[in-house]
Structure formats: C-alpha cells, structure tokens
Amino acid sequence: MGAIARRRWALVLGLALLAAACDSATQPTPTPAGSSLAPTVSPTSVVSPSDTPDLRPTLTATASLTAAPTVAPTATATPTPPPTPTAAPTAEPTPAPATILRFRREQHGSGPRNVVDCTDDAFAGTIHLVWRISGATGVTLAIDGPGIYDSYSGISGEIDVPFACEEEQHTYTLTTTGGDGPPASETRTISRGEPEVIDMAVIGPNCPNTTDFVPVSVTWEIAYATGVEVWVDGVLYAPYSGKQSPVEGSDAGTYDCNQPSQEYMIVTTGGFGPPATLTLTAIP
Q: pLDDT tens-digit profile of 77-131?
C-alpha cells in the first residue's frame, strides 16, 4: 500500500473514532420515569466511513504527449574512395615484321646484275642468287610464277638456279616463311642480254693520191654475241669471232682512193635475239 493510501485510511479511522466520542458525549442523561421534563434529543447522525469525504488529493496525470519533432535524417555524404590505380597493361613487344634485307644475283661478271650474258664461255645455264632476311625463319623461291621451286631454312642463303636463254627473261620471287607477321616477298627479273655493238672504228684510209688502193681495218667491241661480220659497201667482206677485235684492228680490205667515200658495217653473230649493226662511212 502506498503512502497516500495509508494516510487516507488513517484519516478515515480518526474521523470514525472522533464521531464515536461525540456520540457518547451527547447521550441524554436518563430522566426518571414519569418525568415530563426530560428533553427530547434527536439522535446524532453517525458518520459512516463511506460518507466521509474523500480528502485524498486527486492526482490527475495529464499526459502531455508532444510529438517529438521529426528530424529529417541528414544525408551523410559517403566519401567516394579514390580510384584504385590501375596498372597499365604491359604492352607485349611487337614482333619485328618479316623483312628481306638482300635478294639479288651475284657472280655476274662485269655486266649489269640483272642481265645474263648467255654467250659468255663461263655461263653454265644457271645464275647465282643470294639473300638475307630478318623476322622470319626461312624462305621459298619461285621461278616464273607462283609455284615453289624450293624451300630454304635460315635467315640467309645462296643457290644456283636455272636460267634458260631461249626466253627473254625470267622472274625469281623470294618469300619469307615463319615469323609472327605477314610474309615479305620480293621479285627479281633477270633478262638475257641482247646483242649490241659497244664500239667501232675504221682505221684509214690514207690516200697519197687518187689512184691508189690503200688497206683499211676496223676495230670493234660487242656484247652478248660471239662475233661479227664485216661488210664493205653492202658486200660481206669477212666474218670474225670474239667479242672484240685486236688492238690494231681487223682487216677490212682496201679503199679505192678514187672514191669519195666508202661504207663499212659490222653485224653481230651468235647470241640470242636479233643481231646488232653499226655502220661508219670512211672519207679519205
């Protein structure tokens, strides 16, 4: 029982006892029988505990429920983490492309590299090719077309290959094999030499008078042929072999000093292709 309840019941009990005492004090003194002088006393109301005013303080709990202000949550910015450094991918080294560093004909004598003297006594029907490559492991060789004549391993090589003089020219194509990139390819065109007259001269005539016949000689140098014919005024005088005449010249007959001029011509012989000619006019 709480303290307030105990005080309440104590107060009620005290009031009850006080009421009982008052009731006892107000009881009339008994009057002898027959006495008309006895006062009439109205009974005093007895206060019952239930009629006792409730003197307990009325405690009214006023619940003032004020809603707490709604506070919008403050958005907390989530810090953006710094980007994680991404290691740059290591670039793989780019493989060196296949390259043909050298591809040509060698051992060609004194003439051009891409021309074959089929009339040379040292010519044996072949030419000598050499090559050097990088970025590949070997090569193939094709002659006069896409078909493969042969294959060779390594970054360098040399080989004797056929050259037929019956045709004007031949092509030789070198193509790399192996390696990581596309193949490299080069083509060399080798031609047969056509007869030509490099030089010619007429020695004479030296006419002391207009009635003499004096000797005349000619000198020449030719290429890609085996000899010449000497013609005087359109008549064959003599054939000669060799690629050049003696230093003193070759006999070309006599010159008639009675003539104002005389014509000398040399025509190549041997070789492949049409003959070459050269004509000189001699004046005494």
A: 566 667 776 666 666 667 789 999 999 999 877 789 999 999 999 899 999 999 9
Partnered with residue 105 across adjacent β-strands are 129
**pTM for the whole thing?**
0.62
Please provide residue 276's backbone torsions phi and psi, each rounded to the nearest 5 degrees. Answer: -105, 150
Residue 184 near residue 175, CB atoms below 8 Å: yes
Dihedral class, residue 233 (left if φ above 0, else alpha if ψ from -120 to 50, else beta):
left
For the chain, strand residue ranges (E) read 99-106, 115-116, 126-134, 138-143, 150-153, 156-162, 169-177, 185-192, 196-203, 213-223, 227-232, 235-241, 250-256, 262-269, 277-282
Provide the residue ranges of all domains of the chain, joining segments of one domain with +.
99-192, 196-282
Q: What is the pLDDT of residues 264-277, one digit of tens each?
A: 999 999 999 999 99
In 3D space, the residue among 15, 16, 24 whose CA is nearest the CA of residue 44 turns out to be 24
R_g over Cα of the chain: 73
Is-same-fold flag (99-192; 196-282)?
Answer: yes
Residue 276 neighbours by CB distance under 10 Å: 19
The fold of the 196-282 domain, in CATH, is Immunoglobulin-like (2.60.40)
Exposed, middle or buried: residue 193 (CB in 10 Å: 0-12, 13-18, 19+)? buried
Please state, rounded to an integer, the average pLDDT across all residues of the chain. Answer: 81
Six-digit token string for 225? 């042929």
CATH hierarchy code of domain 99-192: 2.60.40.10
End-to-end CA distance of the chain: 173
CA dihedral over 131, 132, 135, 137, signed as positive or negative: positive
- Write the pLDDT tens digit of every residue in 199-217: 999 998 888 776 789 999 9
The one-character DSSP state at 109 is T
Max distance between CA atoms of the chain, in angstroms, equals: 237
